[in-house]
Amino acid sequence: MNKIKWVTQVIALPYEIQKSLFPEFANVADELAVEWQIALDELNDLSMISITDEQWSAIKKLDTYMLSISGSVNIQYWNNDALCQSAEWQEMREMAIDILSIMQWEKTVPEKPKAIYIYHG
Q1: Which in 49, 72, 89, 101 has the greatest CB count within 10 A?
Q2: Vertex 100: Cα angle to 78 and 38 (nearest 5)
Q3: pLDDT digits (tens, 9 = 90+) for 33-70
Q4: What is the top-level taxon of the source organism (predicted)?
């Protein structure tokens, strides 16, 4: 449950703060999408966790939206410029804020992730 909370908190944040949580070279939009999918997979594996229909609906709404703007034809939404400026990312931030509220999680800046990043530059 911690991973879904962490990534939801980060998606809800303004671009400048999102960017500060990752290395300078990272494609933060892409990283957030990957982290979201990993968190969702973990959440699905934790069948003993009780999530209300309302909570699951809010999570599914964001996931469905992300999937609707994914794929090679929508590559323009998955870079740092889009993360900063696009209406699509603003929409995702609002959905994440809704999830935080429904889950009764604080809207705060979580710790930086402990991860190894591979730079392909």
Answers
A1: 89
A2: 45
A3: 999 999 999 888 766 578 899 999 999 999 999 999 99
A4: Bacteria
Distances (CA, A) of 53 to 20, 58, 60, 75, 109: 33, 9, 10, 32, 27
**What is the rounded distance in angstroms from the CA atom of residue 43 to the CA atom of residue 2?**
9
Q: How many CB atoms lie within 10 A of CB 61?
A: 13
- CA–CA dist 44, 98 (Å, integer): 20
Which residue's structure tokens are 């003993």?
48
CA–CA distance, 92 with 95 (Å, rounded to integer): 5
DSSP string, 75-114: GGGSSHHHHHH-HHHHHHHHHHHHHHHHHT-----PPPP-
Q: Tokens 């290395």 appear where?
A: 23
